Amino acid sequence: MIHGELHEYTTAEVARHASTDDCWIILGEDGKQKVYDITAFLESHPGGPEVLLDLAGQDAQEEFKEVGHSKAAQDMVEQLVIGRLRTDGRRKPVKKGRVILPLAADDAADRKLGLRDTRLIGLMGLTMAVLFAYLLAPDV
Ligand code: HEM
């Protein structure tokens, strides 16, 4: 298929194809993403159908790269292309269940630490005040 003639799909359209009998994914670098119908390939995927179904209807580029797929796998992908992703200049939508969680947990830990620090500083100030009051108090 000639690249220029590929049909354009939106992320919303791709997202509607997310089941075992109708499964699309998005692959490719930002701005050059393509849409793939992987329904017929699910069962023959050497990595199993589950990993693909988890990403059904979504952008799977990051995960595809992380696995370090062979050149043969990358060539295989191109047999399944059905169109291009419509790019509207916006950032990619954040996917559900991404690595955002540990970061959020870190944030929470930071906030907790901040609160504890504030309390500690307050307590130190109070101790100093009492100490000074005691030291500076006129002798009886
Ligand atoms: C249409 C897209 C895909 C094609 C054509 C494809 C093809 C292949 C092929 C041919 C292999 C065998 C190893 C290799 O040659 O690299 C493989 C393994 C694997 N793939 Fe995919 N894959 C696709 C998408 C994905 C995605 C999105 C994931 C998401 C995590 C994934 C996860 C894996 C895993 C975990 C293995 C097993 C690696 C191993 O056992 O060493 N694949 N895939």
UniProtKB/TrEMBL annotation:
Record key words, sorted: Heme, Iron, Membrane, Metal-binding, Transmembrane, Transmembrane helix
Start and end residues of each Cytochrome b5 heme-binding domain: 6-86
Membrane spanning stretches: 120-137
GO cellular component terms listed in the entry, alphabetical order: membrane
Keyword Iron attached: yes
One Gene Ontology MF term: metal ion binding
Recorded superkingdom: Eukaryota
Gene3D superfamilies cross-referenced by the UniProt entry: Cytochrome b5-like heme/steroid binding domain
Coiled-coil segments on the chain, per record: none
UniProt subcellular location: Membrane
InterPro entries xrefs: Cyt_B5-like_heme/steroid-bd, Cyt_B5-like_heme/steroid_sf, Cyt_B5_heme-BS, Cytochrome_b5
Family: Belongs to the cytochrome b5 family.
Protein name per the record: Cytochrome b5
Lineage: Eukaryota, Sar, Stramenopiles, Oomycota, Saprolegniomycetes
